[in-house]
Amino acid sequence: MDFSFTEDQTAIADLAAQIFTDRATDEFLLEYDRTDQSYDETLWNTLAEQGLLALAIPESCGGSGLGFMELSLVLQEQGRRVAPVPLLSNLVMAGLPIAKFGTEEQQQAYLAPLATGSHQLSAAIADTVVSEARKTPVSAAGSDGKVILNGVKAAVPFGSFSAAILVPADDDQGNSSVYIVDTSLDGVTVESQRTRLGETLATLTLKDVAVEETARLGDAGQGKEIVEWIEQFTNAALCGMQLGVTEEALKRTAEFTGERKQFGAPIGSFQAVAMRAADAYTDVETIRSTYWQAAWRLSEGLDARTEVRAAKYIACIAGHRVVHTAQHLHGGMGSDIEFPIHRFFLWAKQIEHMLGSSAMQLKQLGEALANDDELGLSSLAI
Length: 382
Hints:
Number of domains: 3
CATH superfamily of the largest domain: Butyryl-CoA Dehydrogenase, subunit A, domain 3
Distance between the termini: 20 Å
CATH architecture of the largest domain: Up-down Bundle
Number of strands: 10
Helix content: 40-55%
Largest sheet: 4 strands, mixed
CATH topology of the largest domain: Butyryl-CoA Dehydrogenase, subunit A, domain 3
Strand order of the largest sheet: 1-4-5-8
Structural class: alpha+beta
């Protein structure tokens, strides 16, 4: 079996690496962190000009018509450079489901502008993995040939910059559907939520928002299936970003401990330091193997429920260990919030908690195995 990437995939990864490396330097990110920006518009426009925003968008909408594997390579390089651009929310959480479930009219209306970077999209699914008591459902009621939406969704990634947001809503029969809600509609309010990485989240409030039936993504009642589909691809993409984050954090730590000297010798030669670095290396490779297994199965249209849960679980616990080790081995410099390694710690922790932390992934993995006889532990690479 050939596990290598194709020439085109390698070229895409190399292009993304060059763009992110040239722009997201340590010096640039230091100055960027001192501003109130939530993402780098210049980098976003560069990615659009080079066609990377259009990778997984159908050719009929001006895209390249490629798949999740190619997109994953770009997200991995973004994580490696902790580059502040909203690729996940646009290309994975909104772009992929519209390409998969959307009508031709919906794809033209929303994906063609996304390919050029002229507008942004997102999805309001942050409460998918929380307990029923904490979920905030949106109601959908028919009226005069339209659908009236009411409710609140929190933690929408880059919602305040989005022209449209995918919103799951339940009718009075308990059937769920997903609607593409233009944020310019009457009754739509988007309020920014500030995180340590900027105003990267938003609260979406819908008050008697009237949308056309044509705004529904997929079939009526297909909402649960679509949301689960989005969640699987998003969690797999988060694992890819975590791989980039942890791999670069460990590389920088190896370089630092090879140069930093104590008692006349590099601290990397000390047994305690070397053992922690070796454990971190093992963690990075575990993230890599579980992540690519999940990403490949998703890209091939195979059942990847257990693989995605396992990969995200590993990305959470191993990612935490790697960035904690990286900060610790940097000594006092690692605790400086303006030192580059600290940004890797912030990114790893945000990735860890988005769409379910390790405990939630393990819980849902257990439920999947217990409730479905066709699933088995033999398929997991934990």
